[in-house]
Specification:
With 647 residues, the chain is mainly beta. The chain has six domains: 133 residues, no CATH class; 71 residues, Sandwich (Immunoglobulin-like); 69 residues, Immunoglobulin-like (Sandwich), CATH 2.60.40; 76 residues, Immunoglobulin-like (Sandwich), CATH 2.60.40; 65 residues, Immunoglobulin-like (Sandwich); 163 residues, Porin (Beta Barrel). The protein is 4% helix and 53% strand. It has three helices and 53 strands. It has an eight-stranded antiparallel barrel. Strands 1-10-4-7-6 form a five-stranded mixed sheet, with no helix packed on it. The chain has a four-stranded antiparallel sheet with strand order 13-12-15-16, with no helix packed on it. β44 and β45 form a beta hairpin.
């Protein structure tokens, strides 16, 4: 076998647009002939769009096989314009297009010893020349008579591996990926170093002497992995190994984990994170890891108040409502925050108390709040004539002259006395103030005795006019062909996100009609739309579905929600004052969590977008109407109510 004895490297850069600089390893530089054609007609770029340099190699003796260039510090050689991996012109020059980022090169050729690595400094678009001295007086390749061949047939376990071989462990001639467990190669006689690598297995190196014929070798790599049996109390925790989620506890047999020490984390909502250090043996077995005991990060709180009608509200430090209910309700609160418990009631002063999270951790406790305190004003009523009966909010309170404390707020007052029209008004009672009412009652007209003649007479026009007018109004009120239109405001409430939305509703029709409606919380969320979060996996992903590489957590109040819905549909009048409506549209119920980096990110599996469907009713009182209904957006329900005006 011939041997490449010496590589003399002359690297030439263009002094002008077409000139080249020739450099020897000793630093001596010489000019070379103009090489404009190579620059102009064979321009190539690497994968990063850098213009390639061209290296021309001139052997001083012909080569019997293809000359292969290998590189370090950059990318592999770029395919020449005519295809293949290199190009040899008619003069015997070998041309190579390589990235200017390459810092070291060497050459190999079947049947020849490889050259040493040499350093190069390349510029984009320049042409360099290398003189390769091939000495033919030495041969280490034996010539065989007949059809004798030499090589190796290797059977490998596991089947997927990377086989590299060369004249030493530092100089590998070739690397071949194996997917079926078989590696075959025709090699010249001599000694070769082999390196077999596979993920989760120890790397195997060996020296093999290749002689005449095909040498058969079996290689079985030693495992360098193990499996883990993982559990937690309580179960259902997300399990992470070195920051990568591998499933939810319990895990009977994990995927392969490389030998060595690893950090295992167990995460579950409202529990402290449990961390274990596990040393994987690397013998391929399943190791049982002690159960991770998750410490509660919450307490069970029963809310109590002496006034059962009071509404109890729990808010976090940011004022966000966590819970709303009545006395006796139980709520689970995270122990890392301090909460406010408030008892409220209309016309009463709210009372509150604090709940310190650290005092409830891991416990079941009762927290009592004082009942709301009534707030009073005064009401004084006089009437002409006096002794009229006083009814407040339809409850009897006495007779005029009347004076009594009354809860603040709006109240309906009626004065009744026989022989007089009922006096009705609404009063607004304010704290520590007395509202005075002086009412003058209107007497009813005296009853008249009408003598009826023996022969019935037709009613006079003035007697019949009221009844005809009444009949006309009744006919108008129930006429099915009467067109009516309405418009007004609507308010919705989402029990999942516990937030209100506001909007409007308008419609027109006879017995059948149409309407349109829209609601929103009018909230803008400054968010990062390039990624989204999945609560199920506790991980963030890019919009193309690839793993973002960051774990996001919901921390206390760092979450916001956004809700809007637009619908349209049909109405049908069931009776004069009552109609039904039903429609469809599109709605959004998005949940955003703030991650550890401070950005709001859409929680995709806790948000809903899509078709919305709704049904409800309209009750009309003259020109005023009340609407009530429910809306469903992709399985999430919220209710709404509105006040409409009929034209």
């Amino acid at each position: 076998m011939k041997r490449l004895l010496t590589l003399f490297c002359f690297l030439f850069g263009c002094l002008t647009a077409f000139g080249q600089i020739r450099m020897t390893v000793s630093g001596k530089a010489e000019l070379v002939p103009d090489d404009a054609d190579a620059i102009s007609y064979y321009r190539q770029t690497d994968a990063n769009d850098n213009v390639c340099a061209i290296i021309k190699v001139t052997p001083d003796n012909p080569l019997s096989s293809r000359l292969v260039l290998q590189t370090r510090g950059g990318m592999a050689p770029v395919a020449p314009p005519r295809g293949g991996s290199n190009y040899m012109d008619d003069s015997g020059e070998w041309w190579y297009w390589i990235s200017p980022k390459v810092t070291n090169i060497m050459f190999t050729c079947d049947g020849y010893t490889p050259t040493d690595w040499i350093g190069v400094s390349l510029q984009p678009g320049k042409v360099y020349r290398l003189d390769l001295s091939v000495e033919s007086s030495y041969t280490i390749v034996k010539q065989f008579s007949g059809a004798g061949l030499s090589g190796i047939k290797m059977t490998i376990s596991p089947e997927e591996a990377l086989v590299s071989y060369g004249t030493s462990l530092d100089v590998m001639i070739n690397s071949v990926p194996v997917t079926d467990g078989y590696f075959d190669a025709s090699l010249s006689e001599g000694k070769y170093f082999f390196k077999i690598e596979s993920e989760f297995y120890e790397t195997y190196t060996t020296e093999i002497a290749i002689t005449k014929g095909m040498k058969e070798v079996e290689v079985s790599l030693k495992p360098a992995f193990g499996h883990l049996n993982l559990s937690s109390n309580p179960s259902g925790a997300d399990v992470f190994v070195d920051g990568k989620r591998i499933g939810s506890s319990p895990i009977q047999k994990s995927d392969r984990i490389a030998a060595g020490e690893h950090t295992v984390l167990f995460r579950k909502a409202d529990y402290y994170v449990a961390q274990l250090k596990v040393k994987v043996k690397g013998d391929g077995s399943v190791q049982e890891v002690p159960t991770a005991e998750l410490r509660p990060q919450f307490g069970q709180v029963t809310l109590l108040c002496a006034d059962p009608a009071a509404t109890l509200i729990v808010t976090d430090p940011a004022g966000k409502e966590i819970f709303r209910g009545k006395s006796g309700a139980t709520v689970r609160l995270n122990s890392q925050a301090t909460y406010k418990l408030e008892a409220s009631k209309p016309s009463h002063m709210a009372q509150s108390t604090g709940i310190v999270g650290q005092t409830i951790e891991g416990k079941e406790v009762d927290v009592r709040v004082d009942p709301p305190v009534p707030i009073y004003g005064g009401l004084q009523i006089s009437s002409t004539p006096s002794r009229a009966e006083v009814y407040i909010d339809e409850a009897y309170f006495g007779t005029t002259l009347f004076a009594q404390p009354l809860l603040i707020g709006s109240h309906l007052v009626e004065l009744r006395k026989e022989g007089y029209k009922t006096y009705t008004t609404r009063v607004l009672i304010e704290q520590d103030q007395t509202f005075s009412l002086d009412a003058k009652l209107v007497a009813l007209p005296a009853a008249k005795t009408v003598l009826q003649p023996a022969t019935p007479k037709k009613s006079t026009p003035q007697n019949t006019a009221p009844s005809k007018e009444k009949e006309k109004k009744e006919r108008q009120s129930v006429a099915p062909d009467r067109i009516s239109a309405f418009a007004g405001a609507v308010v919705g409430y989402d029990p999942v996100f516990k937030k209100a939305t506001f909007g409007g509703m308008a419609g027109v029709g006879k017995v059948f009609g149409a309407y349109v409606k829209g609601r929103s919380d009018f909230k803008y969320v400054d968010r990062d739309d390039s990624i989204y979060y999945l609560a199920e996996t506790a991980s963030a992903y890019k919009q193309d579905g690839s793993f973002h590489g960051a774990i996001w957590t919901k921390s206390g109040e760092a979450s916001v929600q956004h809700r809007w819905v637009v619908t349209a549909g049909a109405t049908i009048r069931i009776i004069d004052f009552f109609s039904l409506y039903a429609g469809a549209g599109y709605g959004v119920m998005n949940n955003y969590w703030m991650g550890t980096a401070g950005d709001y990110v859409l929680v995709k599996d806790r948000s809903r977008q899509g078709g919305s469907f709704e049904i409800g009713g309209l009750v009309r009182f003259g020109h005023i109407g009340i609407s009530m209904g429910v809306t469903s957006t992709n399985g999430y329900m919220d209710g709404e109510a509105g006040l409409q005006y009929y034209f």
